[in-house]
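Q: I have 123 residues here and want to know how they pack in 3D. Can you give me a structure?
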Amino acid sequence: MAKILLIDDDELLRDTVLQMLEVDGHRVVEAHDGRDGLNRFEAEHFDLVITDVLMPGMDGAQLIVELRRRGAQLPILAISGGRRVLSPEFNLQTAGLAGATLQLAKPFNRSQLKQALHEALPS
């Protein structure tokens, strides 16, 4: 299974997604914002990054741009619930333009997350 970096400032959501991923056998490392995620990314190898788009400090779009600038080729799944801006779709389009491989609107269920991972990760 995959080693996944999960970045979200919402601790409850992070815990829920962590449980969904671990049930399927993935190894998950958590980060609470973009800067923390970037530091963890630099320290370890990951197969996939899942990042919230809207976070304080370094947001997900900035993180994605920085990862791509550093040459990261791994898949990045952007997630967003749309607060503070017009809609989740707007936030996810921004993440796509920044270099996210896939986008998933919050709230999502385990089946939707599994489908996104299936599309993002090589078999």
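Q: Anything worth noting?
A: The radius of gyration is 13 Å. The beta strands are 3-7, 27-31, 48-52, 76-80, 102-105.
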